[in-house]
Amino acid sequence: MIQLLKMAFRDLGRNRRRSFLSALALGIGLALLLMMSATIRGEMSNALDTAIKLQSGHLQLRAQSYNEDKASLAWEDLVEKPDQIAAQVAALPQVKVATPRLYTSGIAGSSEESVGVRIVGIDPASAANEPIRSGMLSGDYLQADDHEGVLLGQTLADKLKVKAGQQVSLLVNTSNGEAAQQNFTVRGLYTTHTPGYDEVTIYMPLAKAQAISQTEGHASVIFVLLKNREDTQAVVTALQSNSQYQIKTWEQMNELVVSFESYANAMFAVLYLIILGITATVIVNTLVMSVFERTREIGILSSIGMRSSSIMAMFFAESAFLAMGGIVIGLGLGSLLVLYMARVGFHIGNYGATNSLMIGETIYASPNAGDFITLSVIAFIVSLLAALYPALLAARMDPVDALHGGKQA
């Protein structure tokens, strides 16, 4: 067996340039797959984390009749005494923060433009608002007793052509189905690095949002963040004793992200095989050329008693050496690409966001050791399969014809 491996390694050395290019092709294909896998994993993870922090939380308590798509402000669709309920939820040991939020839609206008917006009433002091507080770009953060101030996303401010300290007009839907209008001062501008979200979201103190929408003492949801995502079901079980409210989990509120991740994994699994299959053809060509170049040698080996299975094993060994070289190259290049994408990322700008899919302005990769191992094993197996045809071609040669450099059986 050792002698067979030595022969295989020596045969690859006959044309080092061709062998290197074959391994390089496999390596580049593997590196691209590693980068794609890490990037998709990273973007799906970031989109889910962003959606949880900004929009859904890990849990939400809502009135049984509440429909988030309609953002109803009818009192029967809202949570009554939200501060009291939020305090009860926050008392659970698994809960990091629970805070009431009120959602309503409206139109924001300036002297230059007017756009449809989503207005979010928040408790400014709540830790749930840390992404907004830490994302302040200019101006000041909100105070709970501020009755004339709002926060705008930088993307929305650019569209309205306003800055911190200037005025915007808000036309807001109310609980009785009418609309209320008031001028507000832009206290500050923020960014969540999710332009599609920043472009449509305005924050104001909860008390003011309740006053202008005529929903005093009510909130749309109790927004809950947990210390650990894995505790979601335990908290749901603890809260279900109060059947007055419906409880939505982060999985239910982010079904698009969860299902898209599963779909993307299945789709890219096929793409992985296609890319590896294309790169494997290079190995096939290399070994087929080697068969024709070594026809006489194969004939001599057959005539002195080497069995067909040994000849096949020799070509499989050559393919294994090429695969190992390609995998080493691929892991090296792939690690550099993944590291770059994890630290620097790929800027896509204002790609957009929806209520279910939050896409940031920069895509980052998320390295995973399992991907490196799995894709390396798949690349090795595909390379061995690529050697099957050349190995059979060599093993089926008639020794007499091979000695004369002739036809194959």
Report the uncertain regions.
Answer: none
Quickly count the domains: 2
> What is the CA–CA distance across the termini?
26 Å
For the largest beta-sheet, the strand count, sense and barrel status come to: 6 strands, mixed, barrel
Helix content: 40-55%
Q: What form results from the Cα inertia axes? A: elongated
Name the beta content range. Answer: 15-25%
Say how many strands there are: 14
Q: Main sheet: which strands, in order across?
A: 3-4-9-6-8-7
**Mean pLDDT across residues:** 85
Along the chain, the helix and strand elements come as HHEEHEEHEEHEEHEHEEHEHHHHEEHHH
Instruction: Assign the structural class, choosing from mainly alpha, mainly beta, alpha/beta, alpha+beta, or little secondary structure.
Output: alpha+beta
Total helices: the number is 15
Q: What Rg do the Cα atoms give?
A: 31 Å
Give your account of this protein's structure.
- The two termini are about 25 Å apart.
- The strands form three sheets. Strands 3-4-9-6-8-7 form a six-stranded mixed β-barrel. A two-stranded antiparallel ribbon has the order 2-10. A two-stranded antiparallel ribbon has the order 13-14.
- Strand 7 and strand 8 form a beta hairpin.
- By secondary structure, the protein is of the alpha+beta class.
- Helix 2 runs antiparallel to helix 10 and helix 10 packs parallel to helix 14.
- It has two domains: about 200 residues, no CATH class; about 180 residues, no CATH class.
- The chain is elongated.
